Structures are given as structure tokens and as C-alpha cells.
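sorry for the late reply, my laptop died twice this morning and i had to redo everyting from scratch. anyway the thing you sent over, i finally got around to it. pasting the sequence first so we're on the same page, its 178 residues, then the predicted structure underneath. double check i copied it right bc i was rushing
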Amino acid sequence: MKTHEVVPDVIDTAPGSKLEVTYGSVSVDGGNELTPTQVKDIPTVNWNAEDGSFYLLCMTDPDAPSRKDPKFREFHHWLVGNIPGSKVSQGETLSEYVGSGPPKGTGLHRYVFLVYKQPGKITFDEPRVNNRSRDHRPNFSIRKFAKKYNLGDPVAGNLYQAQWDNYVPKVHEQLSGK
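ok and here's the structure:
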């Protein structure tokens, strides 16, 4: 996380454990490069969760629209709260998953996965965002979100990097609600 400057761009403290994130047979591994085609579908995510605890999962891109000009930092791609243990599918989806869509010519973007242990079940007052909308996704801050809901520092995390490929126009079309 420090090598790829996620600390300090996204969070203040690196998580203590590595989040397992897989897209089929492809694994996210601390900043490895994946293609938007490889990450178009919802990944499988696992972490060491405590029984009886609730967690929040976030996937965010701090490099929107580019790493050199991050004026939309962060663009969040996925946000699920009230996850019982590590059962993401049983959590409350605040923002549905959207794969990577880095604009052409903007180079590598970092896609950061973070898990926070919640102090208990939370009533989130955030707007719900489906996977066909870009509303409420740009200029997100997981740091501010975590502070608002008293989540503390992330307990697990991982990241990959991606740049434009020929699947990106489909992501952009999807986000335009067409």
C-alpha cells in the first residue's frame, strides 16, 4: 500500500492483513496489473472475519480521471456494508460493483480494496447507487466515509492496477444508464 502510495493518497494507515481478491483464476496481488476485461465481473473476496462481527468493503480508484490529474479522487466502484463475517453477498449493497474503466491515454489507475470492521450494524444514510449510474461515485473519500461511521483503520486490503483496454467503452456505456 505504501509502495503504490495508497498511503497517503487514500488512507493514513496500511491494513494489517492482505485481502484475498480473485476474478475467476486471476488474483489481485499488491499492485499487479490486470485488464478491465479481466475485472469486469464481481470478484470473490475473503478475509479473516470475526464471528458475529459486521464489515464494510470498499473498492475505490484514487486516480480519476488520471493519476497526474486526480480531480475526481476517489471514484468508488463498489461499497457494501453490514457484511456478516466475510459473506459479502449477505451484506447491504450501497453501490453496486462496476469494473475498471480508466479513460484512454490516462495510464495505470490504482484500484484499491479495503475492508473495515464496523463497530456494530450501521444504518447508512448514503444514497444507493446501481451499476448503471455514475451518480455519487466521483469525489468519494473512503477516509471521510470511515470517519463518519467510526470505522477506524482498514483491517484488510489489496490493490491492482489497470489501464484502458477495448472493454472500457462498455463500462462507460453501462455507467451512462444505456
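The chain is about 10% helix and 30% strand.
thats about all i looked at so far, will dig more tmrw
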